[in-house]
Automatic annotation (TrEMBL):
GO terms for molecular function: DNA binding; transposase activity. InterPro entries: Homeodomain-like_sf, RD_transcriptional_regulator, Transposase_8. Pfam families: HTH_Tnp_1. One of its GO terms (biological process) is DNA transposition. It comes from Streptomyces montanisoli. Keywords: Coiled coil. This is Transposase. Residues 64-91 form a coiled coil. The keyword Transmembrane helix does not apply.
Length: 101
C-alpha cells in the first residue's frame, strides 16, 4: 500500500481499497488499523462505509462512488449549460436591441 505523497493528505484509490480490506479482515478495531496506517479513524470509517455502499450493503438510497462521480459530472455540465444559455440570452438581447435602432 502506497500513500500518495502530498501535504493535503490525499490517498490513492489503491491505498484506500487496501486500508478498507485490512480494516474489514483484521481483528483490530478501525481506530487501531487507522493508527497503524497513519490515517484518521474518521477517514477510514468513511472509506469502509463507502466500500459497503459500493458493494450494495449500505442504507437504502445511499449513493455509490460511481453514482457520486456521475452526479458531480452532471452538476458541472448543468452549470456549463446554464452559463451558455446566459451568454446566448445576452447575445440575443444585444442583437435584438441593435436591429431596433
Amino acid at each position: 500500500m502506497s500513500k500518495k505523497s502530498n501535504t493535503s493528505k490525499r490517498y490513492t484509490a489503491e491505498f484506500k481499497r487496501d486500508a478498507v480490506a485490512l480494516a474489514l479482515s483484521s481483528e483490530k478495531t478501525v481506530t487501531e488499523v487507522a493508527r497503524d496506517l497513519g490515517v484518521s479513524p474518521e477517514g477510514l470509517r468513511g472509506w469502509v462505509r463507502q466500500a459497503k455502499i459500493d458493494r450494495g450493503e449500505g442504507p437504502a438510497g445511499a449513493l455509490t462512488t460511481a453514482e457520486r462521480e456521475e452526479l458531480v459530472r452532471l452538476r458541472r455540465k448543468v452549470r456549463e449549460q446554464e452559463a451558455t444559455i446566459d451568454v446566448l440570452g445576452k447575445a440575443t438581447a444585444f442583437f435584438a436591441q441593435d436591429k431596433s435602432r
